[in-house]
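User: For documentation purposes, I need each entry recorded in a consistent format: the amino acid sequence on its own, followed directly by the corresponding structure tokens. There are two entries in this batch. Please keep commentary to a minimum and don't merge the entries.

Assistant: Recorded as requested. Entry 1:
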Amino acid sequence: MTKYKLFNTDGKTFFDFRSNPESRCEGFTISYLDDGTVVMSGDYGTLCWKRNYHHAGDKEFHRDYGFPSEETGISYFAEKVCQFGIPPKIEEWNKEKAIEDLEESATDYEFENDKDYKEALEEIKWLEEYQDQKFNEIINNLGRALWEHNLGIRYTKQFKFIFKILKEVSDQIIKAVKEENNESN
């Protein structure tokens, strides 16, 4: 994976990363707003999330620098992305994964010899694309237990890529903030 270096920062609200300091290609900026919103924008698209809500005038004010960190799980990060405004396309449906997921869940719900299960599996195999209503009808015929499962839903490659980048640069952001705080004191 490409390594990104912190190219420019004020140590508080913006952090400009590039893979090559001589080029604007393969670069992005992470901006922290006073309301807790974080925006990543640049060559890989735009992604917003919100983790903590603090006002600059608050005694306990702090930005959530370093989130996501190396320890952060992608599902937890996706929650923070989706809770904020209009959810971006971070997931996609994959027919092969839906079939695989349904086959895995068959043992949990004892569907292996069930006629409805076998019919549902065949119907899914014939779907050309994710059709919300049709897919939900198929799953509904098997029972409400499967509604909790996101059969065939996976994070997009782009979202996984951005998540990996953010985890990679987290320590650089924290270091820049500490340096700025030391200079201010």
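Entry 2:
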Amino acid sequence: MFEYLNYGALGVFGLFAFILFIANLLNKKEKYTGLYLLLFILIGLVLLDAYNEHTTALKNINDFKNKNITLKCASGGGLYSAADTYRVSLDDGWRLDKNYFIKESFMVRANKCERW
């Protein structure tokens, strides 16, 4: 599950809360219970997102192997480019390696797919 952690999910607010948390540890004059709560909520959200991505990957792997369902998978993309989509199924020559669907030199993560 930890391979699905999105380290950028905390963003600016998480970094700000973490800095305040460390500053509070160094300056123990006052307690910031709200800050502790915010920090634990942010960490919980990151772990919840990783769990969701992990269960999505397991469902897609199960559909691919056992039910031979065709999946539509996205790979790449980002700020300045669009994601490429691939049709993934056993009939098209794709195979499974851990959490990736592989065909020739293409590798697509199993959590980036949906039913066709």
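Summary note for entry 2:
The two ends are 25 Å apart (CA to CA).
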